[in-house]
Amino acid sequence: MKLTLIRPNLGDYRSSDAMPPLAMGILAARARDFDVTFYDEKAEVVPVNDQPDLAAFSIETFTARRGYAIADGYRARGVPVVMGGYHPSFLPEEALEHAEAVVVGDAEGSWERLLEDFAAGRMERIYSGGNDAPLHDYRLDRSIYRGKHYAPVELVQYGRGCRFACDFCSIHSFYGTTLRARPLDGLVAEIETLPANRLLFFVDDNLLGRRSEFLALLDELTPLKRRWSCQMSIDVARDEAVLDRVARAGCRFVLIGFESLNEASLAQMGKAWNSVSGSYERVVRALHSRNIGIYGTFVFGYDADTKDSIARTLDFALESRLEIANFNPLTPTPGSALYDRLLAEGRLLSPKWWLDPNYRYGDAIFEPRGMRPHELTDGVFEARRRFYSWRSIGSRVLNADTAFSPFRAGLTTIANVISRREIYKKQFRQLGL
Ligand code: SF4
User: Fold this and answer.
1) What is the pLDDT of residues 215-229, one digit of tens each?
2) How far is the CA of 71 from the centre of ligand 1 (A)?
3) Pseudo-torsion of CA 272, 105, 181, 258, nearest 10°?
């Protein structure tokens, strides 16, 4: 039987920052009785005449409108459709308007049951596997990524879940309080199969889960002499000795959610703990002095935020010479506490903004208190535009405050050029087209 896996993009276009989606490799590895084809719309066109026995979509909030349109095309050709991912997990009834079945939660377990039921002609509407099964049987089929011309980074996963519960983030609603890590022998064996010259990227939402498991990971990574990057909570910088171990283990880039310079905003988002490592300037110095590049993320639109907050944050990102930065208008996605709060307060400009043909990527989605919606939209775009100006890129690549590293300079240049291109490609784009 033929199975097509599809990752839709925001719309019908190709992205220059596409990376191999691990979720699809997991689905492929667990569909052994099927002849699997994978289309990644970020990297290629999804053919309009594809005719498998079953089509399976991975849907995010930003790709829902596009994914539903492609799914409707499959169904019009008589192909049954199934969906999974965060968005359908939070809104299964919405997804079921475009699919025969939905997988709620992690795919492992429920995905195999769905395929078995499909083959036996008794597929149900909802397959719910929960999100707390141990990750001992983690499997991935990377062969489906071949020929897609992805960014030269190898994605790996150590665990799932996060210790924190920031109100704009849906990780906590999805995984609850469970933190799960894979057995290290399986992870190390997987890493050893990956090209040695490639940067590894841990996709974990927060690699610093349980401290003991994190330190055990560093011990295993150190002798491998691999260069890697990850997303990590800022409290990693609390302890200089741990930071030394992180650097020795090969960490070269880390994504840190600084989010805001505004204490009141941090408190409102449930991230007041962001100050446990001292000032942001200290954190930047601690990482840069160990030759670790920083990808800083920032969000605007909490009640205490004004236009000035955006300008001040941009100044901080430029003066700190963050290698990469992401400035975002606060985005209430289904499943997050933020979404529920703004909906209850009647402040969402369009409650189902991800399906709204009038919504454009980068638009403010709600009424902020400290500025007008268009000021939030324009302020964030201006911050992105200025951070990714050629002049700014040049000064950050040649960061005079740290020892020059050809690896970091090369990676920073490539990442900035790609980010700049994607910003202009995505900004004000209508979802789905
Ligand atoms: S620390 Fe990161 S992953 Fe964890 S809840 Fe906050 S935003 Fe989400």
Assistant:
1) 999 999 999 999 999
2) 31
3) -20
